[in-house]
Amino acid sequence: MTTFLVRRILRLVGVLVAITLASFAFMQAIPGDPVTLRLGDHATPDEVLRLRTALGLDRPWYIQLAFYFGALLHGDLGRSLIDAQPVATKLAQYFPATVELTAGALLVAVSVGVPAGVFAALRRSSALDILTMSAVLIGVSIPVFWLGFMLVYLLAVVPTHFGLDLFPISGRISLSYVIPARTHLVVIDALLAGNGRAALDALWHLVLPAITLGTIPLAIVAKITRSGMLDVLRSDYIRTARAKGLAPQSVVVGHALRNALVPILTVIGLQTGLLLGGAVLTEHIFAWPGVGRLAFDAISNRDMPLVNGCILLFATVFVVVNAIVDLLYAAANPRIRYGG
């Protein structure tokens, strides 16, 4: 186990260094001047020069890169070039919203995708199987931005013409609720404050964004679950379990599904990392104040420290989540062991 953790840490460091170099090169290559964006087009040359010098942008790129790595070694992600706020502070402010949205999307994907894949496998080539796989194909094919706009229009905008207020259009919670920020996860903070109405309101705000973001992972989880279950259901030990007279539910859940969990956990882990870093469109559509939207604004403003901070956060979460998934393999399959 120790060897496994050390390898994962070393891999994380290597990934972060490589991503930092790539993002730094990318930001150097794209057009635009963050100083001009911050000061405006009417700034004088002296003002531009002073700010450029203060931000260290007058130095050669390799000097800037060396200073940035030196700051990272001390845990300093730098300051935003646009508003001069510490990058770590901005990430801490926006990341909980992305975590909350990702958790909702994963809940939708797993709670619907796994049962759908199991039922489709148990009824292979039936009408239910064909219907499920057709829905999977549609779910993977629908663009996120189109689905988000359609859900907003059909379930939030259209009902208002009939006097119905079904779903909110944007935000994390209604403005009428003031919740003390403890974890910065609105639903949990509302529960900690003992305000059940606020918690329900926050969950209601989460429904449409979670469905929008969770549709593609749902389809992928359902397909992988079906494939894994089909392979396991043809195994000798499943036939033996049925021959012993075990209850069908015990055979399916206790034997078949558990042995099909490894590929399911793999795809869930991958989707978790992708959701945390790829919620830009969903956050933009629903005005969700998350890191994806923050990263989009940072790229638009050519705010290199903030872009690098967002990328490093995404990469760290992705590697950590997949390390956790690897550890869960041993719980799902006792034959898997990590030595060291």
Q: Report, as a whole number of angstroms, the end-to-end distance.
A: 5 Å
- List the secondary-structure elements in sequence, H or E: HHHHHHHHHHHHHHH
* Percent of residues in beta strands: under 5%
The stretches of 5 or more residues where confidence is low (pLDDT under 50) are none
Which CATH C-level class of the domain at 93-289 is it?
Answer: Mainly Alpha
CATH fold group of the domain at 93-289 = MetI-like fold
The average pLDDT score comes to 82
CATH superfamily of the domain at 93-289: MetI-like
CATH architecture label name of the domain at 93-289? Orthogonal Bundle
Q: Give the beta-strand count.
A: 0
Which descriptor suits the 3D outline? globular
Structural class: mainly alpha
Provide the helix percentage: over 70%
In short:
The protein has 340 residues and is mainly α.
Structural topology:
Elements: H1 2-29, H2 34-39, H3 45-55, H4 61-73, H5 87-122, H6 127-141, H7 144-157, H8 186-192, H9 196-233, H10 236-243, H11 248-259, H12 261-277, H13 280-285, H14 291-300, H15 304-332
Helix pairs in contact: 1-15, 5-6, 5-9, 5-12, 5-15, 6-9, 7-9, 8-9, 9-11, 9-12, 10-11, 12-15, 14-15
What does this entry look like structurally?
The protein has helices at 2-29, 34-39, 45-55, 61-73, 87-122, 127-141, 144-157, 186-192, 196-233, 236-243, 248-259, 261-277, 280-285, 291-300, 304-332. It is mainly α and 340 residues long. It has a domain at 93-289: MetI-like (MetI-like fold), CATH 1.10.3720. Helix 12 (261-277) runs antiparallel to helix 15 (304-332). The protein is globular and about 85 Å long. The termini are close together.
